[in-house]
């Protein structure tokens, strides 16, 4: 059994989709990050970095329980455990390269673009422009790569496509103000639609819908989500 620590944001959603694609048994454990539950000692024992997603595989290597945190690490762990959605053996270097491109580039810059466009105070136009333009650049790199291709790596659907899908799903927030945020990236629009058509997506989107997560962006939420702005939270 896999214990899946979840909040309805892009990175946990990726893991949810992979779990559904693989048909693995899992228990969803809601972590309300706007209430600060990610900072609780019981969760920090699973992920010292205090972020979702994270999993605990009760049937890990050699039969021992294993914790895995960071969405990319989880995608790799589960795909390697099952031997699925990894492409062919000779796709390995491309798979790792694009997974880490998303993990270290497209994802973080998209996240910062969202933060500075929606959460940061006024008067930070340099930062807003910086992260918005870098998000656009990363989307362009991946869109160019997808020219003439159906999937990011090799000839089949892999965890690289799942990783990209998690953020393409939030393109409207990354590219605030755009009526059709993927119009400038037709190959990524095609990729997103291809993944969306998979039956596992609807099941992944239903994860956590039986739990009411906090949505009010009040002082408590700001302190929980951006603790480095309030050092006393972690003191």
From TrEMBL:
One Pfam family recorded for the sequence: GST_C_2
Record keywords: Transferase
Residue stretches making up the GST C-terminal domain: 88-225
Gene3D superfamilies named among the record's database cross-references: 1.20.1050.10, Glutaredoxin (3.40.30.10)
Limits of the GST N-terminal domain: 1-86
InterPro entries: Glutathione-S-Trfase_C-like (IPR010987), Glutathione-S-Trfase_C_sf (IPR036282), Glutathione_S-Trfase (IPR040079), Glutathione_S-Trfase_N (IPR004045), Thioredoxin-like_sf (IPR036249)
Record-linked PROSITE patterns: GST_CTER, GST_NTER
Protein name from the UniProt record: Glutathione S-transferase
UniProt organism field: Methylobacterium gnaphalii
Gene (name only): yfcG
């Amino acid at each position: 059994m896999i214990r899946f620590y979840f909040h309805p944001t892009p990175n946990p959603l990726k893991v949810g989709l992979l779990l559904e694609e693989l048909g693995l048994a899992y228990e969803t454990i809601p972590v309300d990050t706007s209430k600060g539950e990610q900072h609780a000692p019981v969760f920090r024992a699973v992920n010292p970095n205090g972020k979702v997603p994270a999993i605990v595989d009760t049937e890990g290597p050699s039969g021992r329980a294993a914790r895995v945190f960071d969405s990319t690490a989880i995608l790799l762990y589960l795909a390697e455990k099952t031997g699925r959605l990894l492409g062919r053996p000779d796709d390995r270097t491309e798979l790792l390269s694009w997974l880490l491109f998303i993990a270290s580039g497209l994802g973080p810059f998209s996240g910062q673009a969202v933060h500075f466009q929606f959460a940061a105070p006024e008067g930070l136009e340099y930062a807003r422009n910086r992260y918005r333009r870098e998000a656009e650049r990363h989307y362009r790199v991946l869109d160019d790569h997808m020219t003439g291709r159906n999937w990011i790596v090799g000839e089949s659907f892999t965890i690289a496509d799942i990783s990209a899908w998690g953020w393409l799903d939030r393109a409207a927030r990354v590219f605030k103000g755009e009526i059709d945020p993927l119009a400038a990236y037709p190959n990524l629009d095609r990729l997103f639609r291809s993944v969306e058509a998979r039956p596992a997506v609807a099941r992944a989107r239903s994860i956590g819908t039986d739990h009411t997560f906090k949505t009010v962006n009040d002082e408590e939420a700001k302190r929980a989500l951006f603790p480095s702005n309030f050092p006393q939270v972690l003191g």
